[in-house]
Every structure is written in C-alpha cells, then in structure tokens.
Amino acid sequence: MSVQQEVQHEVTGESTDGWQPSSSKLVRLYSHPWTQILLISFICFCLPGMYNALTGLGGSGQIDSSVAANANVALLSATAGTALFIVGPIFSRVGPRICFLIGGWTYALYSGSLLYFNHHHKGAFVIASGGILGVGASFLWIVQGAIMTTYVAESQKGRAIAVFWIIFNFGGGIGAFVSFGLNFHSKDGTVTDSTYIALMVIMAFGWLLGVFLCSPSRIRLAQLHKAVETEKHSVKGIIKMAASTLLKWRVACMIPLFFSANVFYSYQQNNVNGLTFNIRTRSLNSALYWLAQMLGGLLIGLLLDMPWLDRSHRARLGWVFLFVTGMAIWGGGLAFENWHEDRMQQGHKQDIDYTEGSLSTGPIFLYIFYGAYDALWQGFSYWLIGTESNSTARAAVLVGAYKTFQATGGAMAWRVNAVGTSSRTQFAMDWGLCIGSLVISLPAVWTVSKHTAVEQEAGYTPPPTESKAVTHEEA
C-alpha cells in the first residue's frame, strides 16, 4: 500500500487494498462499519438495556431482593465460566451472527421468570433463568465487544464506544421511565405484570434483529481486513492465537480493571436505590442512572478520541480523569453512607419519594453520578482493549477475558449483597477495589502505543530497516 493510500485509510477508515465494494448501495450501507455499530447498539438497547432497567429497580422490582441477587450470582457465575474458554473460541469459528442468535433469546426468558415469580413466588426458576441468561450474555457481549472495538478505524474507537453507550443505555432509561409510569400510583413493593410483559416483547424483537449482523470479512475497513489475514481458524491456531493474546503483561495489568467493572452494581442498586426509595422513585432513579450513563459514555468517548493528542497521551488523560472523578464520587458516597445508616437505625426503609426534595435530592444526584462513573469505567476499559488489537477474533478473546473477570467480580459482589453484608462494608469494598485496580492498570495505560501495526497482530517483529519504512509510512 502506498503512502497516499495509507493516508486515505487513516482518514476514512475504508479499505483501499484488495477490497472491492459491492455495486449495490444497499449492500454497501449494510456493510458499512457505522451501520453495524448502530445495529449492535440498538440490539443492546432492546436486550441488556431493558435488563438494566429491570435490575435498576432494586431486586428486579421485587420486595425480596435476595432472589434477584442470587439470580445475578448465577448469571455472573455462568458468564465467568463460559465467556473466555467457550464462547470466545466459538466466535472465532462461527462469527458474530450465529453467536448472537445462540444467546440473545435468554434475556426474554429471564424477564418471563420474574413474571412467573410474581404469581407463584418460587425463586428456583428465576435463579435457573439467571444462570441460562449468563451463558446467553456471554455470547451477546463478546459479539458486541468485538464489533465495537474493531469495526471502526483506530481514530474513531472512542466515538464508537460513545455511540454504543448512548443508545444502549437509552434502553435502560426508556425502560425505567415506562416502569415509572406503570407504577406511578402503585402502593406495592413490586412492579406490575405489564412491566415484565412489555420488557419481554422488546427483548424478543431485539433478538430477531441479530439476523442482520455482518461478518468481519464484509466490513469496509482496511485495518480490519489486514488483521483478519493474520488470524488462524484451525483449532490449534485459535488456541495459539488466544494464548498469545492473553499472555501479555499489559493484559495482566488490566485484569483488576476488568474485575472491578461490575462490583458496585449490587450495592448501588439494592442498597442505595433499593433500600432508600419507594417503588416509583426507584423506577425514576433507575431511568436517571442509565441516562447518566449516556452522558458518561459520550464524555469518555470524546475524551479518548481527542484529535490533537496521540493515542498514548489520550490513554493517560483518560486514566487521570477516571481516578479524579472516582475519588470525588466515592467521597460523596461516604457522606451518603453515614446518613443512610442513621436512617436505617431509625427504622426508615424504602420510604423516600422524589417529591420530598429536602430528603431525596442529594441521594438521587449521587445515584446519577454513580451511573455516569460506570460508563466512564467501562468505556475506558473497552477502549484499552481496542488498543491491543484490530483483529475481531483477538478482540473477542480480550472481551471474553473482560467479561469473565467482570462477571467474577460481579458474582462475588452480588453474593456479598445476598448474604446481608452491611452497606458500609460493601461500600468500602467497592471504593477500594475501584481505586486499587486503577493504580494496578497504570503501567498498561502508560505504555499504550500510538498505533497497532499489522506486524504486532501477527506476532512478528520486523528488522530495523523494515521498521523504519513502516514508521515513515505512518508518518
């Protein structure tokens, strides 16, 4: 590829070497990187977006939050056990569409199990459905992560994360607003049947959209085509590729970051929201939490795509921003925790309504900031994964590792919540894990390269003269 072609590729992200576009405008639109980013974003709007609306109610809309907490333990345990060693290799063989169709239907099953629980009060089905959903979620999130981190040019990965996070969390926000309307006059501690039925319909529609997902070979992107050429699709080749991708010291430094990505959900949703507010205010707070994630995702995406900084400096800026905002938000959480303990000792539980401004304003805004910080954290984690590889198969392995450790940390936290551990202990654990994992990840952040070369993808180190030529072309 000539210098002029390289420059065109860097600007447009489209292939100029060995890739022939289709004569059909519709096919070209279908295989455009941003079409697929928007599609997977809307699919996640319908599936995990609606699931997030449900769990954000505290106890998935039930008075007894222990059933939902144990279902989450089953879900996250199943995800941790399948994402890396089972789903990742399957993705490398069958691609994104088949992987998604295998797992996407499980979201509707889980919502249906909660509808069943509303009438029969048997938690075993809910917990079993949570475990099945854990396997399905592995398939969905590896497909989503691989598409989001490899289907656009390196200079646009932050924007891809931002777009995904806005659309995906809009699902959580809309779903929670619907629940807020359905339960506005409710005096019960559980949500209505119509809430679960509406979510099931949306989830089923999102699953059907998966038939339109596109394979990497059809995407109009030079860096992706070059990276795909270095992939090995035999069983031995997949194992070797996965091992070489994971067994890097930089990935090891990221693992605590992955582990801590969901540890705060159980405390924030069941303790901060679930134990403090009545059902309609919990629904409202859930909507605000996911809308705040939209803003957080937009902010971190724009920050990590700043055109006047190279990629290595953007990585360091993102880390500093995450550390400073984390200390500020968790510091506000400490003030809430002191206030919350006093109220619980006085017998106040699930009693604050959003109309009680003097009581509700501070805790509601804290919950909003918690939601924004989750988006900052996960957006930064995905962006770091994107700096490691432009290969869809390699990204799937890294996303599998991310989801495995994320789910392990989340399962641990939900189990800690389910056994009745004090709110203060959970708060301290979450704050310590978040800031500690940021510190451990610093060496990996500090050594992010300016560009991921094809030689790196193939595990090949060119001789000095060849390195010089590559550097000249990139310049």
TrEMBL record:
A GO CC annotation given for this chain: membrane
TM regions (residue ranges): 34-51, 71-91, 98-117, 123-148, 160-182, 194-214, 249-267, 287-305, 317-336, 364-385
Membrane topology listed for this record: Multi-pass membrane protein
The keyword Transmembrane helix appears for this protein: yes
Pfam families: MFS_1
RNA-binding listed as a keyword: no
Region span, Disordered: 1-21, 456-475
Organism superkingdom: Eukaryota
Keyword list, A-Z: Membrane, Transmembrane, Transmembrane helix
Main location: membrane
Compartmental location: Membrane
Name by which UniProt lists this protein: MFS transporter
